[in-house]
Amino acid sequence: MQPEEVDAARDAALAAIAAASDLEDLKRVRTEHAGDRSPLALANREIGALPPQARKEAGQRVGQARGAVNQALAARQEVLEAEHEERILVEETVDVTLPTDRRPAGARHPITTGSELIADIFVAMGWEVAEGPVIEAEWLNFDALNLGADHPARTMQDTFWTAPEGSGVVLRTHTSPVQARTMLTRTPPIYVVCPGRVFRTDEYDATHSPMFHQVEGLAIDEGISMAHLKGTLDHFATQLFGEGITTRFRPSYFPFTEPSAEVDLRCFVCKGVDAASCRTCRGEGWIEWGGCGVVNPRVLTACGVDPERYTGFAFGMGIDRTLMFRHGLSDLRALFEGDIRFTTAFGSEL
Amino acid sequence: MKAPLSWIRDYVDLPATVTTEQLTDRLTDLGLKLEAIHSAADGITGPLVVGKVLTMEPEPQKNGKTINWCTVDVGDANGTGEPQGIVCGAHNFAPGDLVVVILPGGVLPGNFEISARKTYGHLSSGMICSARELGLGDDHDGIIVLPADAGQPGTDAFGVLGLDEEVIEFEINPDRAYGLSLRGVAREAALAFDGTYRDPALRSTPAANGEGYEVVVDDPAGCPVFVARTVTGFDPSATTPAWLAERITHAGMRPISLAVDITNYVMLETGRPIHGYDLDKLQGPIRVRRAAEGEQMTTLDGAKRVLSPEDLVVTDDSGIIGLGGVMGGETTEMSATTTNVLVEAAHWDAVSMFRTGKRHKISSEAGKRNERGVDPTICEAAADRVVELLVELGGGTAQPGVTVVGTPPASPQVRIGYDLPARVSGIDIDSETVVAHLQAIGATVDADADGVTVTPPPWRPDITDPFDLVEEVVRIVGYDQVPSVLPREAAGRGLTRNQHLRRRIGRTLAGAGCVEVVSFPFVGAATFDGLGLPADDARRHTVPLANPLSAEEPAFTTTLLPGVLKAAGRNVGRGAPGVALFETATVAFPVDRGPAPIYGVDRRPDPAELDKLIEALPLQPLHLAVVLAGERERGGWWGAGRDAGWADAIEIVRILATELGVAIETSQTQLMPWHPGRCASFSVAGVQLGHAGELHPQVCAHYGLPARSAAVEIDLDVLMAHATAVTPGPAFSSLPVAKEDVALVVAHDVPSSTVEAALREGAGDLLESVRLFDVYTGEQVGEGKKSLAFALRFRAPDRTLTEAETSAARDAAVARAAEVAGAVQR
Asked: What residues does the B5 domain cover (chain B) (predicted)?
């Protein structure tokens, strides 16, 4: 083969490689221009028949030509393979907006997660979470808390009694018996918070329920005063409702505390500014939140805490009610209906 | 307590600039909580004016009624000055009388809009009003006829009728019973604004003498003071003056008759309940004693009462004539013909009042005050005030006889150190402030170097303890002065193990697609019938309630299933295609150990006493219930969905057990409300854990759930008690695994768990895992048999297993299965 023929065969091969549009095409080009029967392969075979002085030159030329072709083939192969892979990925495109709700989501109840959120605020202050049974001894629910049998305030809490009459056992009307149990079984300092179910014989409506949830707190230590109560509730309010949301006290009456106070929460929606148009606090600037006070020394005595050495404070508020205004719920019954559309909205942490 | 503002101002001089809001704010700060401010004119919109009847023409109607066609001078109120033509159905007035007219455009309570309308052949332009139409009481015998000096025609009638009155409604706490009187409210108002106070109970009264009606008190502890006065010649036809009727109406009581209204007026004024007897119906001396068991009487509400020896009664020679301090009797009640009145003002033991009121379910204005505690020193003053009004308004004659039996009990003295209010409140309060504020509430204060010895005022029986005095001082200093200080940081131990585990259980269940619900725990026989429980099922043995809200659900539940099933049915009813719910709560099983003791409160109960208290309570384990109904996985573009079934319920238990590291044993059982062939029983270390499986078809139908719905109920206390405390780090080999599949044919009733356990046992230590991957029944394995296909994985910690080793282990496993379960390899 003449040198110019080798060059021509090489150029033809390179042109064909460059023109190969896919891997299939390239395979054909490879057979045609680099295969055993390709012009350059034939030329290579001819070299042996050439005179020795011509053999070297021809060998070099054909070798270079074949090298160039193989290199081009490899390069093209790589390019076409990459293109091929890319095309497959493109072809595999799906509609990612298709619904993917194969497994319906679960959720925990906001009363549970709300109770945990509250508990965690106190646990972060070094408090502990105390618990007790919902069917409770009358003595712990009432007497130990300075609510003797003839105390008019007993009628303030409409109580479910277990039969027969005189059983001495009630469905607890507040979580306060847990405080009594804590004082009876531990020695101060005591810092506990008690969330839980409580019962009153209230007819069921948008704002009342025979079963609801309370959280109470109890601190017994040396030198405890109302100032510590205020500090604790302010901190609690801020953690639950945001910066600047504090509390105020109004005189009230609870047998287990003296002095006693109602605690109001600064409205976290209007913050007391432009309260007149606020639907959350109905123009008050404050929201009634719960009751609190200094633990009555009579309660300390009944529960075995030395009232000369220790003072304490206690507070309590409704978890359901707190959730209602925190989340803008208008009907308490939504909490107890069990409609999954309600509960799933809250996820598994509050 | 509803207190008309003008009545408060009768006893206290308040600065003219004080608004009602300022007054109620300060009183709320002092502990008399504002409930609402009412206007007496609530629901009435003018024009409401004084009218003078010019003419009235009676016109008999076909329906037998006679109406009056009137012309009424309403001044310029109608814009024309012309007389107003009005049809009126009442007859208790005459031309020249002043009446109350509401003109067209006005609105009466009940959103009753007044317009000019044609009636009985006339155009009636307005209405002549009765007291009831204006919300001023029940008197509907006729229209209101105003006194001749009430005002010129056209005068705005709101002021004339006292409708411009503001009425403050307070919520009175049990410790502030003195706030159930104008006397008490005014005292607090005086305290709030440092105003001059005039005590309506401070009056000179005639001394007791021997000429009064004879009264014998057999139980001075129950009735320490009994004052009796008599008024004769009272005019029973005398009507209650408008001002008095308005005041007691505004205060929330109904005018009845002059004599009764006067006793109520004085009760509202002083806080001291008064009882009036028809003197002519009394026979012989009045006696106060405790009732005998089973004695009977009829109270003036017509109710027959069977009495207890704890009830205090008032008697005369005829027998029982009153339930002392709570309610009078029928036989000596004042009536429309009473002319001679015996006035009783007595002080009663508050506890006795509370018990009697509770026992007989009587809630009266008198009882409410007597059971909270009334000033015992004002019986004479209150009786004298009643006598004064009976004479003044009813034309009676006060008889000179004055009976006073007993003396008021003294208030107990209470001592505090000067530092106590500051220590308890955290506010800097000096000794002068302590003394001044205690004096301000009316206490007698004996101050010395260290503190004060205080005699509380007689209207404050609630003040018995040092901390009661602290509250009095602090409320006057102001609760807004309490600083906000965090207590020292406690070294807490964080959540308990069970608290952590409960959170973990809840999150695991939510992760498994279950939604938590909170249900009421009340159940009844019908609830258990709905679950199909047999008559002797232990779950029917409940803790009964003495006063359930519903007779159908009179007990505390032993199972959480009714709650979750009901909620699931509700969701299905609302169109949910699938629902997975869970609830964790305590249930209750009675222990039947008799009543829980009631101890004293002067000391801590000893440990044995406490144990006795706790042991009397029902067992209250924490349960978990789950219901899975309808779609467990949804259908969609990926393919068909899948409904929940028995296996999903069992899987929930397995997921929880795995999460908590508890090894549970599963066995076949039969228990309602589950399908008799599809119920698993679980136990942990031999302790019963609970059940899961498919619900009985009848139960699904009862709760409106789709067929094959499944449920779980387990005892979480048992599960948590066996939770792995500290998980040991697992060791595993990274050498190649050897897999062997075996298919074993066994009788259809051999549990797969038995076969699996045998394989494990037989395979020995080289076995890494065994998993059943297929169950086959059919011709190929024969009648009454099933084929179970297991995948066995073998691996050694230190070497690659040879084929021979693996085969030997597999053969040993199969051999053990053959031995234990009669398994034959296919």
From this structure: 409-484
